[in-house]
What does this fold into?
Amino acid sequence: MKQINRYFTKKIVCVLALIFFCKTLEAKDWLEKKAEGWAWYEQSKKTEDLEASQPPSATAEINRIKKENEEALSSAILSPTVENVRSYLTLQKKWVDQSALFAENWRLAVLQTPALDESLMHPTNQLGVQLTQQMKSQEKELILLQSQTQYGLIFFFEGNHLPSLATSVAVKLFEDKYQWEIIPVSMDGKSNELFSHPKQNVSIADQLGVTHLPAIYLVYPAINQWQIVGRGQLSFEELEDNILKALKRGSRL
It folds into this structure.
């Protein structure tokens, strides 16, 4: 009997010890989670404090200043007391001075950094503009002169058509200056004083799709290709520029 009692006593002690051990683990787990929660709160609070201590961004500051100026102006307009107007003018002067400082430092930055100076590539003073235009004009003339043996123009016009007469002047000037071959084609069978012996080939006009006069086509005879470079009344300079742009798009049309 005593042996049975000792046996049951040992069992009870083991069960109680097991229960106590489990409760200890639960308590430890709860404390750890509690500590984690407290640590999270502390970390979050530190992050908020850090963000609050940081100065506002430049963009945020500009927006604040803009709002402050707008508010001062609105107050001065709605209630134009001496004090309100003075407040607005004081703010305005501050930022006018700031803008002047920015402009001066911009100038210095560009002066000290040639890569930022657009005027070196695109001059804005009168002499620089003139030199740039002269260089462009020389380049244009060289390209057009070198192209005279490869390209030609077909000029469609009407003899008594005023826009045709005006454009005939431009085409004739181009022919004389650059020695290009010009094929004048009269759509009404009439000539004018600049092109006294035009061709009368309506079929080629139909082939090119000519619908408005006058019309000028750039032709590359070697491979029988063409491209419109002028329609309606054109000046000599416009004709030059149109042909140059067409040539620069490629060595072939």
